[in-house]
Design a protein that fits this description.
Number of domains of chain A: 2
Strand content of chain A: 5-15%
Structural class of chain A: alpha/beta
Strand order of the largest sheet of chain B: 3-2-1-4-5
Largest sheet of chain B: 5 strands, mixed
CATH class of the largest domain in chain A: Alpha Beta
Distance between the termini of chain A: 39 Å
Largest interface: A-B, 23 and 22 residues
Shape of chain B: globular
Helix content of chain A: 40-55%
CATH topology of the largest domain in chain B: Nucleotidyltransferase, domain 5
Oligomer: heterodimer
CATH architecture of the largest domain in chain A: 3-Layer(aba) Sandwich
Shape of chain A: globular
Distance between the termini of chain B: 28 Å
Strand order of the largest sheet of chain A: 2-1-3-4
Radius of gyration of chain B: 19 Å
Number of domains of chain B: 2
Order of helices and strands of chain A: HHHHEHEHHHEHEHHHHEHEHHHEHEH
Number of helices of chain B: 9
CATH superfamily of the largest domain in chain B: ATPase, nucleotide binding domain
CATH architecture of the largest domain in chain B: 2-Layer Sandwich
Radius of gyration of chain A: 21 Å
Number of strands of chain B: 10
């Protein structure tokens, strides 16, 4: 695909039928297309097989939506989620489509601020604003939204969002004791029941088995990509890996897995031939903290523009989403649901207390990825990650790891200041 | 000769270095066209190399500079020129405040910068001075006379300004308010220093280090020796020039090839 030809494809009729604000979305589409071109297509020596992911971005609001609408016509459920804590396996087992709806752009924030308080998380504002302004085709296409209680801003916003789209809430415990596991197993059962209520069909153990395999394969492919990213010098940019990880929340899981594996084959070849996107001397950065929802590419972009390279992303969009696999050998629903609960309870989100396993995990990923510094990225008003950064910082000090904490939102106004901090951090790493 | 240019948010600083010594320097307002202003300022020198730092460093690189380094590294290098074994630097500029920790041989070990608002910066003091009708130099002198019985609790520039106005309207003496404003800034700076850690002396740089009230209050409340280079606001430009002369490390932007 030539860089100059890139555009996000326009589907005004389909958008109209979804009740979207087409005139406004048309503008957003062009802005996003330009940003994608500048941020991604301008990179040198990208792997050839990024073409599929470029194509998916160009069809993100068109072709992929068409697929989802076709699935809906066949009676398959389409469910929007906001957190890696929602067990996708159950949606897939019901023949459905699970879409990660998190908002990652500044555009709809002013729409949200007409109702929501200004001083809350930009991701929550952005997500709510997408629905309120009717400028997200995914939001328009979902049957219902399944939210959770990982933070106060989300928890209370679901009550307001429920006025725009049916929104159910899963209670995520805040501690990891036995009684919390029991509670959460009940919540997982409720989730299953809600999906079944929507389709009028019971989810079978066989279907769950297949879904577990599908998700395991997807996660294995992402793990493989993550390992390849660690190679010195890196065969792929951190930005491109972030893009793929973001697409993971929109794309069909089977096709996505196949395409990621094909890309990994190419990366294997690059590694054996010594082809890389940055010199081996480029400072290697591990990004940790809050997730970067599409199209939030700010931190990765600044690191790589300044001559560094992101070699690992520990957020929910990164390893936290795919580091844990599931036992595939359960045959009855009760044990499957228990195994699901166990797998999801391993997620080391900062909403838990204590959550020291995350500090260990960050250090482990730091070593595995051959990183030279940790950039802690925290969205404004995300208190749990912001406070937990203290422990990550202390662990870094103890281990002599260069550490930089950045707090940011989606607005472009702090790019200058972030750039100074990131460049100084890379200078610090280089010594 | 190597020239360092520090293109800051309020002023541009130029320092010329020859054989590791500061040969000359200039300071001027940034104005609306920092690119032209910088060229104007370096016209009298014949530098073999120009290194830019500060907010406008990339603009300078596009037009006339050979190399860029960040303000952090520039201050680390420049501060060591004046105080060869310093380990902690506090720089309060117009838009940014930074605390830099150095290791024994002067490498940046850790740094901290203020949040994205103007609180705790030179600009904050400037706005507060204006709302009390002081010039910037009068402001610091007035604060020295203050009696310390009023407090400014707000660190947001906009809210602090309304606090100043309401104190004025309650009849508080301008010198007391001036002192309160200084104390609020100093407390913010001390919190930043505490996050990074500091030894028994701190090098204080940037335009705000020219303000006697700020220096005294910092010394009094931090309880350590405050070292102020003369002049304190050219440390970044000087550091950039020294870096250019040394030329030991390749600039980050050269790293892409």
């Amino acid at each position: 695909m030539s860089a100059k030809q890139f555009e996000i494809k326009s589907y005004p009729d389909m958008w109209e039928s979804l009740g979207m604000d087409v005139a406004r979305f048309e503008k957003a589409r062009c802005v996003l297309g330009d940003a994608f071109q500048t941020t991604f297509l301008s990179q040198e020596n990208r792997p050839q097989r990024m073409d599929y992911f470029n194509w998916l971005i160009s069809e993100m609001h068109g072709g992929r939506i068409r697929e989802i609408l076709d699935a809906k016509k066949e009676g398959r459920p389409v469910i929007g989620t906001f957190c890696v804590y929602i067990p996708e396996e159950l949606v897939i087992a019901a023949g459905g489509i699970c879409i990660g709806l998190c908002g990652g752009s500044q555009g709809p924030v002013p729409d949200a601020e007409k109702i929501l308080p200004r001083n809350i998380c930009p991701m929550v504002k952005s997500a709510y604003g997408f629905k309120a302004a009717k400028i997200c085709p995914y939001f328009q296409a979902v049957d219902f939204v399944y939210g959770e209680t990982t933070c106060d801003a989300k928890k209370k916003t679901w009550e307001i969002l429920n006025r725009e789209v049916p929104t159910y809430v899963m209670e995520i415990p805040q501690m990891k004791r036995e009684r919390d596991r029991t509670l959460w197993l009940e919540e997982v059962k409720d989730f299953k029941a809600q999906i079944e209520k929507g389709t009028g069909k019971t989810i079978t153990a066989d279907a769950i088995s297949d879904a577990i395999k599908i998700m395991n394969n997807k996660r294995k492919a992402l793990q493989r990509l993550n390992r390849l990213q660690h190679h010195i010098p890196s065969p792929i940019s951190g930005k491109d890996v972030l893009l793929i990880e973001q697409i993971a929340f929109y794309d069909d899981p089977v096709r996505f897995t196949e395409k990621v594996n094909l890309l990994c084959d190419e990366l294997d070849e690059r590694v054996s031939k010594g082809v890389s996107v940055a010199p081996a001397s480029a400072p290697r950065v591990l990004v940790s903290g809050t997730p970067m929802a599409m199209p939030n590419w700010k931190a990765h972009n600044l690191v790589e523009k300044a001559g560094g390279i992101v070699v690992n992303d520990e957020s929910c969009i990164g390893t936290r989403y795919f580091k844990d696999l599931m036992d595939e050998n359960m045959t009855d629903i009760e044990s499957q649901l228990k195994a699901l609960t166990d797998r999801y309870m391993k997620i080391d989100c900062s909403c838990f207390t204590p959550n020291d396993e995350r500090v260990d995990q960050v250090l482990k990923e730091y070593r595995d990825s051959g990183s030279q510094g940790i950039l802690h990225y925290c969205l404004q008003f995300c208190h749990t990650y912001n406070i937990e950064a203290i422990k990550i910082k202390e662990a870094c000090e103890k281990n002599g790891i260069p550490f930089l904490a950045i707090e940011s939102d989606y607005s472009p106004e702090d790019i200058g200041q972030m750039q100074t901090r990131i460049e100084a951090f890379l200078e610090q790493i280089k010594g | 000769m190597v020239v360092g240019v520090d293109l800051g948010s309020r002023t541009i600083k130029v320092a010329a270095v020859e054989g590791g010594r500061l040969a000359a320097f200039k300071i001027a307002e940034s104005g609306y066209d920092p690119h032209r202003q910088s060229l104007e300022m370096i016209r009298d020198y014949r530098p073999g190399k120009i290194v830019a730092t500060g907010y406008g460093r990339h603009l300078a690189k596009r037009h006339f500079a050979d190399d860029v380094i960040t303000e952090i590294k520039a201050h680390a290098t420049g501060a060591r020129y004046f105080f060869s074994d310093c380990r902690t630097i506090l720089d309060v500029g117009g838009q940014d405040t930074k605390v830099i920790a150095l290791d024994q041989i002067g490498r940046v070990q850790n740094f901290q910068m203020n949040d994205k608002c103007a609180a705790g910066t030179g600009r904050f003091l400037e706005i507060m001075a204006a709302s009390l009708g002081y010039s910037l130099s009068e402001f610091g002198t007035a604060a020295m006379r203050g009696m310390n019985d009023v407090r400014i609790s707000n660190m947001c520039t906009v809210f602090a300004e309304s606090e100043v106005i309401s104190l004025k309207n309650h009849g508080a003496a301008p010198a007391d308010i001036a002192k309160a404003v200084h104390i609020s800034v100093i407390e913010r700076l001390i919190a930043m220093l505490a996050r990074i850690g500091y030894g028994d002396s701190v090098v204080f740089t940037g335009g705000v280090a020219k303000n006697p009230a700020a220096v005294n209050l910092l010394k009094e409340r931090l309880g350590v020796n405050i070292l102020v280079p003369d002049p304190p606001d050219i440390v970044g430009a000087l550091g950039a020039a020294l870096y250019g002369e040394d030329g030991t490390t390749a600039a980050l932007t050269d790293n892409k090839s």
